[in-house]
Amino acid sequence: MNTTTAEETALEYFHRGFNCAQSVFAACAGEMGLSEELALRLSAGFGAGVGRMRGMCGAFSGLTLVAGYCKGNLSGVPEEKEKVFALVREQAEAFKCEFGTLTCRELLHLDENTQEGARPSERTQAYYDARPCERCVAFCARKAAELLAAQEGL
Q1: Beta-carbon neighbour count of residue 27 at 10 Å?
Q2: Which pTM was predicted?
Q3: What are phi and psi of 5, to 5 degrees?
């Protein structure tokens, strides 16, 4: 999967109403041998800053899931764990350089004291215009495709 295809596919998912984590992870599902359904289910709770708590960006969570596929440990050996942790930290630095923060609430400029309802916002042009989410989804999908391409080259 090339980076352009990954971005386009992730944005298609996002425009269909899937959350940012689902959009990034499902765009890469086939490359990881996962069905679309499984990828959407596994990543569903990570959207909107994990469970709509506005913590870590959901698009970055989707990228983190792909990083786990690429470098995740299959043992409890500390050196094995560090491989995925180092990769995630590297991707986090790239994301922060691009967007300034990993935190959904800060990306959306939401007041710390404002409690949003549990309902997702309607996807209108105003929704897309007011948020960096499309850019975050495209960026993370591109990074995920790069990780997967590097994995294939091993």
Answers
A1: 31
A2: 0.93
A3: -60, -40
The CB-based long-range contact list for 6-12 (8 Å cut-off, 24+ gap) reads: 6/141, 6/142, 6/144, 6/145, 7/138, 7/141, 7/142, 7/145, 9/141, 10/137, 10/138, 10/140, 10/141, 11/134, 11/137, 11/138, 11/141
Question: In which residue are the tokens 């995740």 written?
Answer: 72
Contact partners, residue 31, CB within 8 Å, separation at least 6 = 1, 145, 148
Residue 89 β-bridge partners: none
Phi-psi region at 91: left, alpha or beta (left = phi > 0; alpha = psi -120 to 50): alpha
DSSP state of 22: H
> In a 3-state reduction of DSSP, which class is residue 126?
helix
Tens-place pLDDT, residues 114-126 = 666 556 778 889 8
- The CA distance from 125 to 129, in Å, is 6
What does the block give as tokens for 67?
């990083």
Integer CA distances (angstroms), 87 to 44, 111, 147, in order: 23, 31, 9
